[in-house]
Automatic annotation (TrEMBL), chain B:
InterPro entries: MetI-like (IPR000515), MetI-like_sf (IPR035906), UgpAE/MalFG_permease (IPR050809). Keywords: Cell membrane, Membrane, Transmembrane, Transmembrane helix, Transport. GO terms for biological process: transmembrane transport. Its main location: membrane. It comes from Actinophytocola xinjiangensis. Belongs to the binding-protein-dependent transport system permease family. It is a multi-pass membrane protein. This is Sugar ABC transporter permease.
């Protein structure tokens, strides 16, 4: 890469070993073919989902099954909102409210902690970070009985608030971890210069640091949001009332012991998956840098 | 010289105490959240694991280690423990291995690489319940579309009830667990590969190292940090995973396709024995911490290269 050349160099040349450009070109397209097969493997469950969502109820239970719908039924996406199995509009609202509030709460708690631990040394720093790490090893279902009892005592059992708290707490460690490494990557001198110029701690955080670590915050927020959006096991235990349940739990209500409304299962799944995949695609660029920063720390 | 040093030392001590006090407002929101939603229930779990609770939650007093004894005497525990080992070791090793290969592949330049990277995040972003539900449908022996495809491709003679009996059901669940773990693992390794300097690779090539040699001698050792991170996070996630087993093998009677995590869930949901479930949870947590501790001792990620 570092060789000095006086003629313009194409990317292929620089990157190459000793093969002639044509052979390399061919090999690249070979990689594309392998890549397409890999892509197909990772997409096929979601293709089954997509196709299934457009089948009629009799067709999706037909033996043997059809690959493509013989009769396309986009009406599934309209009729699924009003079924005896589950109150879907309420479920969607639950997912949205729980995810938004859970993410906001997690950010509110993680941001100052990540900033302070990245910038300052104090005696209880290590114990604090260990405590945060331990929450990563636990899982809300393991603590279900204790949480259930606590929420009954507080008289907030079977409400959105319980899952907002649970989601925020159990995603805190990842948010702290990611943001901590982004804060730590900003040289301290930049901030010290701001203090000398008369900025307070809070001001230097909001005016100097936040713009610099913005990608880290966005990554942490989207990660947390997706984790809240997809949460299943704790909601299953902590939210018995159907109107409070999120989409992930509602979906299982379409699966009966004897007969299942698979077309609705898949239509609901699509509604649940498309927004988070879109969000995830937004931070795809930051994923690698975010994970590197985390790995180096 | 002595006086200023003493003054300096006491000043520093005061500064440290002050710094801990100063830290408090910044850490308070996180501490309150962790205290209320994690530490309190953990304490309650440990407490109930030593109590005798009825099915309706009435506390009948101190139970000593009775609950732990009951867990260890469970008839199906050896089978479930074995399953758990197979589940965690199998899924994590396959995810790490396939993740390494995939990351290496994605690190090459070819047309469509960006699209492939986007495609691979889909199983990561998608809800695990939703993904495993597709497999429950697809693997059905009657209307399952994956079963039909396998028959049409000549891989099966007739549709097979993958999720109807413990062994194939458990193996199918493992495959799905690997499938959903690969994207995260791959991205951790991609991040690691990005940190390998290009001139190091060139130097290895100039020194006459072949591709295989370059990989194992130069690239792989530099990925150690990434392997450690990926392994630990995967072990925690795979060990604690409930949704895949619940949706895919939850309907199989008995405990032959259970891990200790899904067993705990069954003890709470079906038997309503909170005290026994608490004891099992405590044991589960201790096992995870010990396993990770041993792993870190053996691998020593902080060691200088």
């Amino acid at each position: 890469m570092s060789t000095v050349v006086d003629r313009p160099v194409t990317v292929t040349e620089v990157d190459g070993g000793g093969d002639p450009p044509k052979a390399r070109e061919r090999r690249r397209w070979g990689l594309t073919i392998v890549g397409s097969i890999v892509a197909l493997i990772f997409l096929f469950p979601y293709l089954i989902m997509l196709i299934g969502a457009f089948k009629t109820r009799p067709e999706i239970l037909r033996v043997p099954p059809t690959y493509l719908p013989q009769e396309w039924a986009p009406s599934n996406f309209l009729t699924m909102w009003d079924t005896p199995e589950t109150p879907l509009p309420a479920n969607l609202l639950s997912t949205v409210v729980i995810s938004l509030c859970g993410t906001a709460l997690a950010l509110l708690a993680a941001l100052p902690a990540a900033y302070y631990t990245a910038r300052h040394n104090f005696r209880l720093k290590l114990p604090f970070l260990l405590l945060v790490l331990i929450t990563q090893m636990l899982q809300p279902t393991v603590l279900a009985s204790g949480l259930f009892r606590e929420f009954i005592t507080l008289e907030i059992n079977d409400t959105w608030l319980t899952m907002i708290l649970v989601n925020a707490a159990f995603n805190l460690s990842f948010a702290v971890w990611i943001m901590h490494s982004f804060f730590a990557s900003v040289p301290k001198e930049i901030e010290e210069a701001a203090w000398l110029d008369g900025c307070s701690r809070g001001q230097s955080l909001t005016r100097i640091m936040l713009p610099l670590v913005w990608p880290g915050i966005v990554t942490a927020v989207i990660f947390t949001f997706i984790a809240c959006w997809n949460e299943f096991a704790a909601s299953l235990i902590l939210l018995p009332t159907d109107t409070n349940q999120p989409l992930t739990v509602a979906l299982t209500r379409f699966i009966g012991q004897y007969e299942s409304a698979w077309q609705y299962v898949f239509a609901v799944s699509l509604i649940g998956i498309v927004p988070v995949v879109a969000l995830f695609a937004l931070i795809e660029k930051h994923l690698v840098s975010g994970l590197t920063a985390g790995g180096v720390k | 010289m002595t006086a200023p040093t003493t003054a300096h030392r006491s000043l520093r001590r005061r500064a440290r105490r002050q710094s801990t006090l100063q830290a408090l407002p910044w850490l308070a929101p996180a501490l309150i959240l962790i205290g209320g939603v994690v530490v309190y229930p953990v304490g309650y779990m440990i407490y109930t694991s030593f109590r005798d609770l009825t099915r309706f939650g009435t506390d009948k007093g101190w139970a000593g280690f009775d609950n732990y004894a009951r867990v260890l005497e469970l008839e199906h525990l050896p089978k479930v423990a074995m399953n758990t080992v197979i589940w965690v070791v199998g899924v994590v090793m396959l995810s790490i291995g396939l993740g390494l290969v995939l990351a290496q592949f994605l690190n090459k330049r070819f047309p469509g690489r960006k699209v492939l990277r986007m495609v691979i995040i889909v199983p990561w972003a998608a809800s695990v319940v939703m993904t495993s539900t597709v497999f429950v449908y697809g693997l059905d022996p009657f209307y399952g579309i994956i079963n039909r495809a396998l028959v049409d491709l000549g891989l099966l003679d007739e549709p097979f009830g993958f999720l109807k009996s413990p062994v194939p059901g458990f193996l199918s669940a493992m495959a799905v667990a690997v499938f959903v773990s690969i994207p995260f693992t791959t991205f951790v390794f991609l991040a690691g590969l990005q940190a390998v300097p290009h001139d190091v690779l060139e130097a290895a090539q100039i020194d006459g190292a072949g591709r295989v040699q370059t990989y194992w001698r130069v690239v792989f050792p530099m990925l150690r940090g990434a392997v450690v991170v990926a392994t630990i996070i995967n072990v925690i996630n795979v060990f604690n995973n409930l949704p895949i087993l619940k949706t895919m093998t939850g309907a199989i009677p008995g405990y032959d396709a259970d891990t200790t995590t899904s067993l705990m869930f069954k003890i709470i949901q079906a038997d309503r024995q909170i005290d026994t479930a608490s004891a099992l949870s405590v044991l589960n947590f201790v096992v995870v911490v010990v396993v990770i501790g041993i792993y870190l001792r053996v691998v020593r990620p902080m060691r200088e290269d």
